[in-house]
Design goal:
mainly beta; 1 helix; globular
Length: about 230
């Protein structure tokens, strides 16, 4: 079963410096039918203007994954981390018992990122941070395991039984992913358009996938996709 969440049906906030789309309920956008999917709680498509950013604010007990699509994201936090995240890099911040951080557009160009929150397996853990670059060769026309709940498998590790796969596809390329019995998938199209088991998704669309043993994704044009494999 594939249930599509159309890009145009997502929530939206436009603050001038921030133009964002909410796949699931977030901040002032509340939709009781879209509170998350399995352990995937937040999937925001943020566009931040030059000079814009989120001031210092706090989180706790959440796995926060950031994937930059365009531009450069400046990050600093109460753990002492200060970094710039660029396209092809993935950041994981485990909020645990509490962390304060700030994020800003670190360039003169528009910034676009996907902000992902995953509910953790356990509460009250010590905060943690990882940032890794994904190899362009590993992303090209195949799935790259960007984040995993199994330490050492993905580029970064999340405290949840969840895997995040990312692929950049040339036109008319097919990639496949097998879902083990009882597993569920969420596919998010970051760019381009794809065919997913006979259903067409375009940029910004997402799809909840259950009771499908194999997911076959064919790009209709150049595309970038994220696939969550969830318990």
């Amino acid at each position: 079963m594939i249930k599509i969440r159309k890009s145009t049906d997502r929530g939206r906030a436009d603050l001038g410096w921030l133009d964002t789309r909410y796949t699931f309920s977030f901040a002032d956008y509340h939709d009781p039918e879209h509170m998350g999917f399995r352990s995937l709680r937040v999937l925001n498509d943020d566009r931040i203007a030059p000079g814009g950013g989120f001031g210092r604010h706090s989180h706790r007990d959440m796995e926060i994954v950031t994937y930059v699509l365009d531009g450069a994201l400046g990050h600093e936090d109460s753990m002492g981390n200060g970094s710039t995240i660029r396209p092809g890099e993935i950041q994981r911040m485990s909020a645990g018992t509490g962390v304060v951080h700030a994020e800003k557009n670190a360039s003169d160009a528009p910034l676009r990122l996907l902000q992902i929150w995953i509910l953790p397996r356990s509460r009250g853990r010590a905060p943690g941070y990882e940032q890794k670059a994904l190899s362009p060769a590993d992303l090209k026309d195949r799935f790259c395991l960007a984040a995993s709940g199994t330490p050492g498998r993905g580029a970064v590790t999340v405290d949840q039984d969840a895997d995040l796969w990312i692929a950049r596809l040339a036109p008319k390329v097919t990639v496949r992913h097998t879902l083990a019995p009882g597993r569920h998938g969420w596919l998010q199209v970051a760019r381009g358009a794809v065919d997913v088991n006979g259903r067409v998704l375009v940029e910004g669309d997402g799809a909840a996938i259950s009771d499908e043993l194999e997911i076959a994704i064919t790009s209709k044009d150049a595309a970038e996709i994220l696939l969550f494999d969830l318990a």
